[in-house]
Amino acid sequence: MTPYLSLSIWVPIVAGLAVLVVGRDRDAAFARWIALAGAVAGFLVTIPLYAHFDTSTSAMQFVEYASWIPRFGIHYHLGVDGISVLFILLNSLMTVLVVWAGWEVITTRVAQYMAAFLIMSGLVNGVFCALDGILFYVYFEAMLIPMYLIIGVWGGPNRVYAAMKFFLYTLLGSLLMLVALIYLYSVSESFEILQWYKVPLEMGAQIPLWIAFFLAFAVKVPMWPVHTWLPDAHVEAPTGGSVVLAAITLKIGAYGFVRFILPILPDASRLLSGFVIALSLIAVIYIGFVALAQSDMKKLIAYSSISHMGFVTLGFFLYSQLGVEGALAQMLSHGFVSAAMFLCVGVMYDRMHSRRIADYGGVVNTMPKFAAFMMLFAMANAGLPGTSGFVGEFLVILAAVKANFWLGFAAAVTLILGAAYTLWMYKRVIFGPVANVNVAKLTDIGRREFWLLAVLAVAVLGMGIWPRPFIDVMHVSVADLLQTVARSKL
Amino acid sequence: MPTELNALAALPEIVVLTAAASILLIDLFVPDDRRHVSYWLTQLALLVAVCVTLTTLRLDSVTAYHGLVIDDMLADFLRIACFLAVSLILFYSRSYLVARGMFRGEVFVLMLFALLGMQVMITGNNLLTLYLGLELMSLSLYALVASRRDDARSTEAAMKYFVLGALASGMLLYGMSMIYGTTGSLDLGRVAHAIFARQGSPALLTLGLVFVVAGLAFKLAVVPFHMWVPDVYEGAPTPITVLIGTAPKIAAFAMALRLLSTGLQGASFDWQGMLIVLSVLSMVLGNLIAISQTNIKRMLAYSTIANMGYMLLGLLTANRYGYSAAMFYVVTYALTSLASFGVVMLLSRHGFESDRLDDFKGLNQRSPWWAFIMLLVMFSLAGLPPTVGFYAKFMVIEAAVSDGFVWLAVIAVMTSLIGAFYYLRIVKLMYFDEPVETLPIVVRGDTQLVLSVNGLLLLLLGILPQQLIGLCAIALTQSNFP
């Protein structure tokens, strides 16, 4: 059997190293082409994961198992189920897009830039398919290094502050998780994640473990009130960095909830579910208002990301098939939509070197094709039916209403808020008369930018109109997850 | 009392002693412009010592010279680590020594004598042997620190090192004399036996233990016995700084293991408490003070202090798993530390030390390769995967957690978060800032090769650590530690 999972991890990493070795700053084109070839190859090897995926079982598929550090029983154990497989595809696709997006925009240290994204991509795939606690942790932490460099080297004026804050915030959470992983090892004599699903744990142990895991993943999601690194990181990062941050790394936090917190600590999760739901609603509503007040486009989208991710955590802790599936669908959709929104801002920033909403106005007059694309993505961000944004939000709201009417009501407020901040921004930037001479001089998107946005537009519309291929993959695994969560460990 | 002589058990020591004495003589007849003959002879001696140790590798443990020394797998492993460390230091420091007129026979000979002292510390099985090894090492190091006698900072550092070092040796010897007084023996096996049989006065034993631990803490450079470290690190010539910071730490670890585990395991409850205090203080203070440093040597000095605190986490569990974790920690720390100072020396040139943090600005633009190596070093020191530093921290934390010290593990990870800040700052300087210095970096070919291998080893061992972890576990199992 072909080790597709190992390939999905190592093809991008090896390609990244190759770019580092052969890429010279003098011959940037060469580095770009190798990087693109590596990214495309990395995406192609993940296609069989979907094509050969068996949707009738919740067991791990494409499993690879080898001894790694026998002294601690650590294994190189990979596998995917319906929950994780789609994120590997999403990530590999995004890598192709960000390499492409940085094609003409990045002119300094091109080889290092491309290599950082490729290596990052391999590590993220590792996070999604690792079934060994330490293997997961290694990918989870190692991923910080390329991202730190991406923000710090190619970022905006305040990049050093943003990079440091990003790194230390994330590290704070994950270090406590390391202690939790080691504690689980000391009670179960194993680092197998699936083994931990069965280990009985006292409530006295579950609560501290829950806090440790929660901190690690809540920072990553990010949930209110540990979200403050995200606006900084997004604003300072180059466009590609923002895309990967929003589309991929935020998903890792949410993925941690379903892979670790819910099944390993079911009783603590149930006990504290009210707490998480409260934090999620604060994220959805309060951060929605914060987004409304932003004058920087990237910051606005960053806050909108936090608000949308609040939906995801809300969906998980409703403990229903609809809620969890909705949350997962929301994660995928947010991956496409936020990536597209950041690319749109990137397109404008490359021309105007400004992200301030006030500097724009009437862009539709000079960039009609671009305005059409951005219209679609803005609608998806607002959750318009027919776009991918609608699917997840609708399912989660449905699940929330079933659980409690007022909960559903509060969650539904976000549809209004989301529409308000996204469309208001769209109106101010795109519509109206041409605001100034700079806007008048804008040129419409070129062929590269067109196809970049077209790919995402197809994904957003496709998932919005016919979400079944996505939901079907998750169905059995989610049902199994809910059964695991329903069993008490006390 | 074992009566056999077993002279060959100390063959690596004999090799190093012979080499040191011969090089001392040969160097007299080597003209100044051919000093590299002494240099290569020293390297050859180290290579021979490694080969001899490998061929006489023992899987069991044997005492020799009537029980004065012990030869086991632990000793062989740590001896080889020390040989390699000294050899790497010589490779890295050649240009530095030449540029500063320190490329002299005395330096090599003193390094070999210091090495001999470390070997005796590693193999000692008797309170006096251990003490003699420690003194041999320390006296050589004092002289080496002062080897630039016209440099005020060097002399001051040497003075400080000597006075405080002598005080620590005195404390250690005082403690040993009390242990001797209450157990009636200098032999570690017999000391252990007497303690288990509850002979002698427990109060005197505890008092002796306090002094012994204080003496060891000084050599390991842990808080509150760390005052000398930053000044000596900063003042000493960089090759001597790295010598102090690497191989002697391995030897001090071995000596602590022999004394505390082989000899004083019966009193482990007492020393466990002391080591917890030392460990927590070192992790917290070392990492906090390192943040405010502007000199890379001082920063690395505080980093050493913090790292020794983490190492103690393994030692204080008082079981074999913890010891093997501490051993892995100290060996990989030495490897990482060697690479860090290797890069520092690489950047320094004639009359220019490059020991300020600002000297690292924009290194990625001056030389992407050395910036990458330094990046690996910094992430390894911070304990981030995929570098070997992660497994070092992972193992000591695992040892602490499985021994029930979850709170210690939490302190350890929280302080390593503080540590991450100042290691990241170096990465920031190298990658995010513009260079202030634009002169190209000129490096000897052999230095380049060895330093590159050293740096990449941090990554390789971070991806495939199982062999080294296994080796550390076996070394302690075969050596009959409790």
Structural class by secondary-structure content of chain B = mainly alpha
Strand content of the residues of chain A, in percent?
under 5%
Count the helices of chain B. How many? 20
- In DSSP terms (H or I, runs of 4 or more residues), the helix count of chain A works out at 23
Task: Return the string of H and E elements of chain B.
Answer: HHEEHHHHHHHHHHHHHHHHHH
Name the poorly predicted regions of chain B.
none
Widest sheet: strand ordering of chain B:
1-2
Radius of gyration of chain B: 21 Å
Percent helix of chain B, as a range, is: over 70%
| Oligomer class | heterodimer
Question: Shape of chain A from CA axes?
Answer: globular
Structure, explained:
The complex is a heterodimer of chains A (490) and B (482). Chain A has 490 residues and is mainly alpha-helical. Helix content of chain A is 75%, strand content 3%. Chain A has helices spanning 4-22, 28-44, 47-51, 85-101, 110-129, 133-142, 144-154, 159-188, 193-196, 203-220, 229-236, 239-264, 266-271, 273-292, 297-316, 321-352, 363-366, 368-382, 388-403, 405-430, 437-440, 447-465, 468-486; strands at 61-69, 74-80. Chain A has a two-stranded antiparallel ribbon with strand order 1-2. In chain A, strand 1 (61-69) and strand 2 form a beta hairpin. By secondary structure, chain B is mainly α. Chain B has a two-stranded antiparallel ribbon with strand order 1-2. Chain B is globular.
Short characterization:
In chain A, 75% of the residues lie in helices and 3% in strands. Chain A is mostly helical.
Main features:
heterodimer, A: 490 residues, mainly alpha, B: 482 residues, two-stranded antiparallel sheet, 20 helices, 74% helix, 1% strand
Task: Give the helix/strand layout.
The complex is a heterodimer of chains A (490) and B (482).
Chain A: H1 4-22, H2 28-44, H3 47-51, E1 61-69, E2 74-80, H4 85-101, H5 110-129, H6 133-142, H7 144-154, H8 159-188, H9 193-196, H10 203-220, H11 229-236, H12 239-264, H13 266-271, H14 273-292, H15 297-316, H16 321-352, H17 363-366, H18 368-382, H19 388-403, H20 405-430, H21 437-440, H22 447-465, H23 468-486
Helix pairs in contact in A: 1-2, 1-5, 2-4, 2-5, 4-5, 4-12, 4-16, 5-6, 5-7, 5-12, 6-8, 7-8, 8-10, 8-11, 10-12, 11-15, 12-15, 12-16, 12-23, 14-15, 14-20, 15-16, 15-19, 15-20, 16-18, 16-19, 16-22, 16-23, 18-20, 18-22, 19-20, 19-22
Chain B: H1 11-26, H2 36-55, E1 62-64, E2 69-71, H3 73-99, H4 105-123, H5 127-145, H6 152-183, H7 188-196, H8 202-220, H9 228-235, H10 238-245, H11 247-263, H12 268-291, H13 296-315, H14 320-347, H15 363-366, H16 368-382, H17 388-402, H18 406-432, H19 445-463, H20 466-478
Helix pairs in contact in B: 1-2, 1-4, 2-3, 3-4, 3-10, 3-11, 3-14, 3-19, 3-20, 4-5, 4-11, 5-6, 5-11, 6-8, 6-9, 7-11, 8-11, 8-12, 9-10, 9-13, 10-14, 11-14, 12-13, 12-18, 13-14, 13-17, 13-18, 14-16, 14-17, 14-19, 14-20, 16-18, 16-19, 17-18, 17-19
